[in-house]
Design a protein that fits this description.
With 97 residues, chain A is of the alpha+beta class. Helix content of chain A is 31%, strand content 31%. In chain A, strand 2 and strand 3 form a beta hairpin. Chain B is globular, with a radius of gyration of 21 Å. The chains are: A alpha+beta (97), B alpha/beta (385). Bound molecules: iron/sulfur cluster (SF4).
């Protein structure tokens, strides 16, 4: 799924960023992003590569949407797209859902 | 599992969904004729099927899924190449979706069952790590559209280890939209474009397409409401006869796209014509490695013997598979005599039943005829148990 789950950059070492996706830390490569990235920025990740830095003006809305999604999960909800988000966070890819 | 029509739509603001559905109905009624549009993205079909969105579409609006699943359009000979390499003892790494896709004689999963070494990876970077950790040759069987191809390109420009090569089955979406738009029998009047691919290519790439083929294109997001809003924008353009491209997903997509990614993509790959499974020969639809990257091109590093595979097993049921017509928008899974019988997610005959983004798989998972789920009502018998 290309949900474009956003993650917040914690630190950067060369071409590798450590990104926090709602508490799940993952390494994301910065080879194909088209803007300078600094800690605190939000990124979209596709198969381990950052493909877009989310514009600051869109961050609040985007985070609110995902907060709501993941809040539903934590609250025991059964939302299907939230399940996809979890899958994407787990980094299991989309193999055999 | 909860009923998508009630709990999911409640979560996603049913008032807005109903308003958007009503707007669609109004538009189609005012047009006074049926309207047919196509989306080119497996994630759009998942959102539509999961949330029972077809129930919110007015009668007279036909929304079909085009060739938006990269796994589904990987052609048999491409699978055969990977299988042949694996059976010849070469270690093959690939994305999980590719395992069960049937080739002419067998899938990679079948080869694995026979003892071939197949590694499932989440990222091409993982395949490179595998190569660094061994002296064995590692072939990365690369599938996916341009969004995924840029990751492969990034790896290839940064000195991968000498035992690492790529077997590219990457595909490029814009050319196939041209094919589908001009297919005889296709009545598609507008397109919803695939979001992540547009992140790379930009939405402006569709301006020329829209003008040339006289059909509007709308880039839309993947939330149920995004899909509905994108469809409203698209049908408005169709009804108004405005053939232009509109970006309804600015959070992820800009007009010019990701220039760094484009530069990487075209430095490593060249578009060449090739078959997309079941659809057609698509000029410039396949991404192959440029000559400068011959040293990392598995097709040039290995002598791949697919002919012996072709002698092994003549395709049997595959001949009845209508995946191609489904992706071209001229058939639905219910038109296939194998759907849900000989062809199921456990025993897939066609690639559309393998991938989580394939139309047949999605329909099978969400109950055969997703259109019948009534918005705001209990799901009826059409839903699978
Ligand atoms: S049900 Fe199976 S055989 Fe029929 S079109 Fe779909 S994938 Fe092909």
């Amino acid at each position: 799924m290309c949900l474009g789950v956003p993650g917040r950059v914690l630190s950067i070492d060369g071409m590798i960023a450590v990104v926090d996706f709602w508490g799940v830390k993952k390494q994301v490569r910065l080879d194909v992003i088209d803007e300078p990235v600094v800690p605190g920025d939000y990124l979209l990740n596709h198969v381990g590569y950052a493909i877009r830095r989310i514009p600051p003006e869109d961050i609040a809305e985007t985070l609110a949407m995902y907060d709501e999604l993941l809040g539903e999960v934590r609250g025991g909800g059964d939302d299907l797209m939230a399940a996809d988000v979890r899958g994407e966070l787990a980094g299991a890819g989309k193999a055999d859902v | 599992m909860s009923d998508p029509a009630t709990s999911e739509m409640r979560f996603r603001d049913p008032a807005r969904a109903k308003a958007l559905g009503a707007r669609l109905a109004e538009l189609v009624a005012a047009a006074g004729r049926p309207i047919s549009v196509m989306h080119v993205c497996g994630s759009h079909e998942q959102a539509i099927a999961r949330y029972g969105l077809r129930a919110a579409f007015p009668r007279g609006l036909d929304v079909t899924m085009g060739p938006g699943c990269p796994v589904c359009v990987t052609d048999l000979p491409e699978i055969d190449e990977a299988v042949a390499l694996a059976r010849a003892g070469v270690r093959v790494a690939t994305y999980g979706d590719m395992l069960k896709v049937p080739g002419t004689a067998m899938s990679l999963a079948d080869a694995q069952a026979e003892g071939a070494r197949i590694d499932v990876v989440y990222s091409v970077a993982q395949a490179v790590e595998l190569a660094r950790a061994t002296r064995d040759p590692i072939v990365f069987f690369a599938s996916g559209f341009e969004t995924t191809a840029v990751a492969t390109a990034a790896v290839l420009v940064s000195d991968p280890p000498p035992n690492f090569t790529v077997l590219s089955a990457h595909k490029y979406i814009p050319p196939v939209m041209e094919i589908v738009a001009e297919m005889p029998g296709a009545k598609v009047e507008g397109f919803l474009a695939a979001g992540h691919a547009a992140t790379i290519t930009g939405s402006a790439i569709f301006d020329a397409f829209a003008a040339q083929h006289r059909r509007p294109v709308v880039v839309a997001g993947f939330e149920p409401l995004d899909v509905l809003a994108g469809l409203v924008a698209l049908v408005e353009l169709v009804v108004a006869g405005e053939a232009r491209a509109v970006n309804c997903y600015p959070r992820c997509v800009t007009a010019e796209g990701n220039k760094v990614a484009q530069a990487l993509l075209w430095r490593v790959f060249q578009p060449i014509g090739g078959r997309w499974r079941g659809i057609a020969h698509v000029p410039s639809g396949n991404l192959r490695l440029r000559d400068e990257f011959a040293h990392v091109d598995a097709r040039r590093r290995f002598d791949i013997d697919v002919a012996s595979l072709w002698q092994m097993a003549p395709p049997a049921l595959v001949e009845h598979c209508v995946c191609g017509d489904i992706m071209a928008g001229i058939a639905a899974p219910r038109d296939c005599s194998l759907f849900g019988r000989a062809c199921t997610p456990d025993t897939p005959v066609g690639a559309c039943m393998v991938s989580s983004e394939g139309t047949c798989r999605i329909w099978h998972q969400y109950g055969g005829v997703p259109d019948l789920v009534q918005l705001g009502a209990r799901p009826d018998a059409a839903r699978a148990p």
